[in-house]
């Protein structure tokens, strides 16, 4: 993929994440901090599909943005064909793994496994 | 090593405006030395004496083996770039009196391999400069009888004229923090030149150049520190050129 396309995605995910994280924070302000982190409250959030969907989107946006940022930092620290390939593919794999792990929680809650 | 000799002592002229400074010159021969060391010389100077003149005084009177590259002595050839009191500058364009210091330290430019002492290799700079095709690209040519000139309006000229002042001295690359860590980075000098030709209304090679700089060590690795523009002795603003180039890449400019 061309670097300009990757960077457009990088900037786009950052802007979208700022907007959605703001909504997320506003949602948290609807109840007290301690109350918000209670087990029942967290499970209820995950079962409320529009909110769970937004959390999933935030997870995807931040994973893409974060791992691309990490890739850029690592590419600037050291150069070399093998190293650069390892960093790029490693970041994609790590990103997919993190998204899969985060999604698993939402799926488990909504399929009654928790 | 210290040499306490002063040009004032050897000079028989009775000019009372002479002052003196300590000139510290970095000495390093990659074939012999493990680390850089400094030699100190006491040098007399006038209000108009440049750092290059001081170094040439050292070569003439104290140590002829000091390696320094220079040519025009008027900030045109871009040969005498070096770190002067911690900042990349042209030695011929820097007056000792404007440094406001009794100690002037000169070192080779950062981010360039050292040949010896103050002389550095320019291969990487010239390679990256060449890589962005720093010339007008057109299908037709001025040889055609019907079109001997490519006319431009003053407004079109203003789009790129400051970038054509680049003298390839390498000070911007020396100041760039990304150049320090990324050995494959194109660098502010080449990116500014890419913009210079992309913005030229006579040029038709925009797509070729944008493709060249659109890689993992290209334009996107600039963090906009702006130090390249701070140190340019010719008033070129490579940081701005890079941002304007990004405008083309992101579709804000066509």
Automatic annotation (TrEMBL), chain A:
Pfam families in the record: Sdh_cyt (PF01127)
InterPro entries per the UniProt record, alphabetical: SQR/QFR_C/D, SuccDH_FuR_B_TM-su
GO molecular function: metal ion binding
One of the record's GO cellular component terms: membrane
Compartmental location: Membrane
Keywords: Heme, Iron, Membrane, Metal-binding, Transmembrane, Transmembrane helix
Name recorded for this polypeptide: Succinate dehydrogenase
